[in-house]
Design brief:
Radius of gyration: 21 Å
Number of strands: 0
Structural class: mainly alpha
Largest sheet: none
Strand content: under 5%
Shape: elongated
Length: 88
């Protein structure tokens, strides 16, 4: 399934942006898709298929960062309840 999805994504990149855009050409995008596919396979405990190096190391830095949570949009579970506080 992953190999098939790489083919579909690669065809999309080549068809949608044959001239590239904003400093990224379609071949680099294909390489990035292959790199990501190998990473997904590795996380599933499967062998890599492509062995393609990441053409966009800067993209991994921004994508792989732990997402910050908005305090007001999350459920706060870190606070102790009044019953569990020690009032010496």
């Amino acid at each position: 399934m992953i190999a098939h999805s790489v083919i579909l994504e690669s065809n999309y990149a080549l068809d949608a942006c044959p001239q590239g855009m904003l400093g990224i050409n379609s071949q680099q995008f294909v390489e990035y898709v292959e790199h990501i596919a190998d990473r997904r396979l590795e996380r599933l405990g499967l062998p890599q298929i492509y062995g393609t190096a990441n053409p966009f190391p800067w993209m991994s830095q921004s994508v792989d960062l732990t997402k910050e949570k908005n305090f007001f949009e999350t459920r706060v579970t870190e606070y102790k309840t009044a019953g569990s506080l020690d009032w010496d």
